[in-house]
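Example protein
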Amino acid sequence: MILKTLLLPFRLNWTIYLGLALGAGYLANQDYQTYLSNTIAAEFQVADGPPDPSPLSKWDANNDASANGEVNVAGVYFTALATGSFDPLGSERGFVLLADDQGREVKAVLVVRPEDIALLERQLVAQGSGERIPVTVNGTLNQSGEWAGLIWTELFVMDVPSSDDLLVIEPFLGNRAVSIYDAAEKTIGTVIILGGLAGFLVLLALVKLLSGRRSTATQSQMSGREALAARQKNRPSQRSLPSNGTDKTSPWGALDAQAATPPPMPASTPSQPQPKGQAKSQNKTATPRLQIAELEVQPLFTSVFPGGGSSFRFKSADEIIRQSFGTLSTLKPLKRDD
């Protein structure tokens, strides 16, 4: 049952596969256009340089974030603050807390992959010394409501007070230009997946189409063979005709054989009655023999000329009827007066 369920998507009509391929190709094309626009925007972003640093205590979302979401904030990193993590959509993320430039409250959360936490901390520590380090962080503003909700829950569990307008920032690690280009290149992965899916669906549609044509041709050939076999089966043959209890391959041959070698008639005695079936079969064979015997009886020759001598003779009524209709007359011949 599970195997049939898994194979069910491969049993659809080829037109459905083609439609799905067109849909996947359309989505792949849309994502490819997005990828192209991202790469072009990345080139302009790298060429423009980072925005001016904005103090977190005076953060203004309308003026301090660029059109492509890049931010450059100034705050304070407390080395004593604990790090945390959350799990959005099955991809775990780690974060480092960043206070405002006055050091009054947690104003920003720097989110990276868990394996990059140490690299981020080294990058922050490299900007100063001590437990309270003024830092500048350049990155991309993340405006996902899901991320913000998960981080709020983690901060509540950690018992860390934070600002009401908490910022979620994905900082650039290492070189800024490399980070921007890497972020733009990530969108090509979706294009490759959807394009490969579209190609696979097109190939599957072609296979289904060709196999359907072959099966149709095979069925038509089989139908033609079945029709020919049915005609040959229904065609009458001499061997399949009923023989009425006699072995005869041809009616003419049977009549000739009966006429040439008539079998002897068995004599029946009054004391031994014959069975009904045998009597019927004897009556069927006796009738044509009697007719043949009557046909062989010829009347006496009578010349039409006095004294005879001519081959022309009178024909009796029975001969005329037999010549015209093939039967004998039941009329009795008239007696001639001598």
About this structure: The chain has ten helices and seven strands. The radius of gyration is 57 Å. Confidence is low (pLDDT under 50) at residues 245-260, 266-273, 275-288, 292-296. The beta strands are 54-55, 70-78, 84-86, 93-99, 106-112, 132-141, 162-171.
